[in-house]
TrEMBL record:
It is found in: Cell membrane. InterPro entries: Glu_permease_IIB (IPR036878), PTrfase_EIIB_Cys (IPR018113), PTS_EIIC (IPR003352), PTS_EIIC_1 (IPR013013), PTS_IIB_1 (IPR001996), PTS_Sugar-Specific_Components (IPR050558). It is a multi-pass membrane protein. GO terms for biological process: phosphoenolpyruvate-dependent sugar phosphotransferase system. PANTHER family: PHOSPHOTRANSFERASE SYSTEM TRANSPORT PROTEIN (PTHR30175), PTS SYSTEM N-ACETYLMURAMIC ACID-SPECIFIC EIIBC COMPONENT (PTHR30175:SF3). Keywords: Cell membrane, Kinase, Membrane, Phosphotransferase system, Sugar transport, Transferase, Transmembrane, Transmembrane helix, Transport. Residues 6-89 form the PTS EIIB type-1 domain. It comes from Streptomyces fodineus. The active site is at C28. GO terms for cellular component: plasma membrane. This is PTS sugar transporter subunit IIC.
Length: 497
């Protein structure tokens, strides 16, 4: 039975030290992310024992609380409301507030409710890579992880639109191939393609918001990348192409705009800020985007597509084995979303990402491992109940309930689940070596939920058949590996301890 979001939010806030201890609130598809002023005040054991909580990931001052899809949105809204009532969340900022007053940069709002510490706050500033007290991790490693997470924060809010448009694109392809409803196909094509045509603007908006700039200025500069008029601009001896550089160019342009905006604002009088800051930001960043970033980002994007195709064509089975085997640890660390820019770049270039079906095999290995645990531990009623409740989500590609509720606490089944994912990835990669690529037109779903988004160079039907074979391989190997090696051997009677 599903827990009440309001009660869950109240219990969570109590266990993390109260609303006054929360400095930022955000969420992804399955996790609530809370930045804490005093991480030591959080009762992690209590959080893990809370009904509805599937797992807790500690990362410096941040606690990622795994709740699962759907419920995480409702609980986040309740948590944000309580933290805002406590006066912790600052109002949205930027270069011009609704009142016309110039708000401090520290009050600017981050994506999905994340808020920077207010001025005068003694906590490390946004993006500060200094280790927290008692944190023994190197500052460089922590800074890299923080950067990857923040880049992921740019793209995660775009996933619902990518999913919706991807499914409509697949439906449109089905109508075109079958000849059904010919009058509807152009409308579906326009609806499905419009978002991807302008995705650079959304990336620029989110980038500026995440990194402390004015979102609309980030979107304005990123819009240069997709503006049709850039075809009349010559850079490096050739005419630019609209969309050249794609989301990588938009990301770089918005990052530059944020830097320029901060630099200008710190040097102009307040009375001129409303005129000079946006003008100089758009002008300087726009020119650099046209005469440098679009060309460079285009070269990087082309290299990504070329490398992915070459890797699958020459070493597809090995690549699939490695990617499928290592994806669960990335999910465990919350770093899997850092791959979103690569997926998005491949979708822009080729119409689908060949990496997502390989990575999705990790979930198949996880399902197979959970089934083996269910069979082997038939007397563990509590664990079997957990598996029954988490298995539907696992089949649809949401792996956290099985990871945190089953395989990770047991230890060995997590490793054998990785083996199942590696086998499924190798299966799909093998067919890529034979010239049949399997791709996804959007990112987000995996497991059985990915079927409506599948396509490839031999058509959706062939792609679905190979992907289904990969899932079955992952299930089977995950099950057999876990059944045979996922549990400690019982000592023989009379054997030495």
């Amino acid at each position: 039975m599903r827990n009440d979001p309001a009660s869950t939010a109240t219990a969570l806030l109590t266990l993390v030290g109260g609303p006054a201890n929360v400095t930022a609130v955000a969420h992804c598809m399955t996790r609530l992310r809370l930045a804490l002023a005093d991480p030591a005040a959080a009762d992690e054991a209590g959080l893990r024992a809370l009904p509805g909580v599937l797992g807790v990931v500690s990362d410096g001052t941040t606690r990622q609380i795994v709740l699962g899809p759907g419920i995480v949105d409702e609980v986040t809204a309740e948590v944000e409301a309580r933290v805002a009532d406590a006066g912790q969340l600052q109002p949205p900022g930027g270069w011009l507030a609704e009142t016309g007053a110039r708000l401090p940069e520290a009050a600017a709002r981050l994506p999905e409710g994340e808020i920077r510490p207010a001025e005068g706050d003694a906590r490390p500033a946004e993006g500060d890579a200094r280790p927290a007290e008692g944190d023994a991790r190197p500052a460089e490693g922590k800074a890299l992880k923080t950067t990857l997470r923040r880049i992921a924060n740019v793209f995660v809010p775009l996933i619902p639109a990518l999913i919706g448009c991807g499914i409509l694109s697949g439906l449109n392809g089905l109508l075109l191939n079958t000849g059904w409803l010919p009058g509807l196909a152009p409308a579906l094509s326009a609806i499905a393609s419009a978002f991807l045509a302008l995705i650079a603007v959304f990336v620029g908006f989110n980038t500026a918001r995440e990194f402390g700039g004015t979102p609309v200025l980030g979107g304005a500069v990123a819009a240069v990348v997709v503006y049709p008029g850039v075809a009349r601009v010559t850079a490096f001896g050739t005419h630019l192409a609209p969309g050249q550089g794609g989301v990588l160019g938009a990301l770089a342009a918005a990052l530059l705009a944020t830097r320029v905006e901060k630099w200008v604002r710190g040097r102009v009088p307040g009375a001129l800020d409303v005129l000079l800051t946006p003008t100089v930001t758009v002008l300087v960043s726009g020119l650099v985007t046209l005469y440098g970033l679009m060309y460079a980002a285009g070269a990087v994007a082309t290299a990504i597509g070329t490398a992915a195709n070459w890797l699958l064509a020459t070493a597809g089975a090995v690549a699939g084995l490695v990617l499928g085997g290592l994806f669960l640890p990335l999910v465990l660390l919350g770093l899997h979303q850092a791959l979103i820019p690569i997926h998005t770049t491949l979708i822009e270039q080729q119409g689908y990402t060949v990496l997502l079906p390989l990575l999705a095999m990790a979930g198949a290995g996880q399902v197979g491992a959970a089934l083996a645990v269910y069979v082997r531990l038939r007397h563990d009623t509590s664990l079997r109940t957990t598996i029954r409740s988490a298995l539907p989500a696992g089949l649809l590609g949401v792996g956290e309930p099985l990871i945190y509720g089953v395989s990770l606490p047991l230890g060995r089944p997590f490793l054998t689940a990785c083996a199942g994912g590696a086998a499924g990835g190798a299966f799909i990669g093998f067919f890529a070596m034979l010239g049949t690529k399997v791709g996804a037109t959007a990112i987000g779903p995996s497991g059985w939920a990915l079927f409506p988004l599948l396509t490839g160079n031999r058509g959706a039907g062939t792609a679905a058949a190979i992907y289904g074979g990969g899932l079955l391989t992952g299930y089977l190997v995950g099950f057999l590996a876990t059944y045979a090696f996922g549990f400690p051997r019982r000592p023989r009677v009379g054997a030495p301890a």
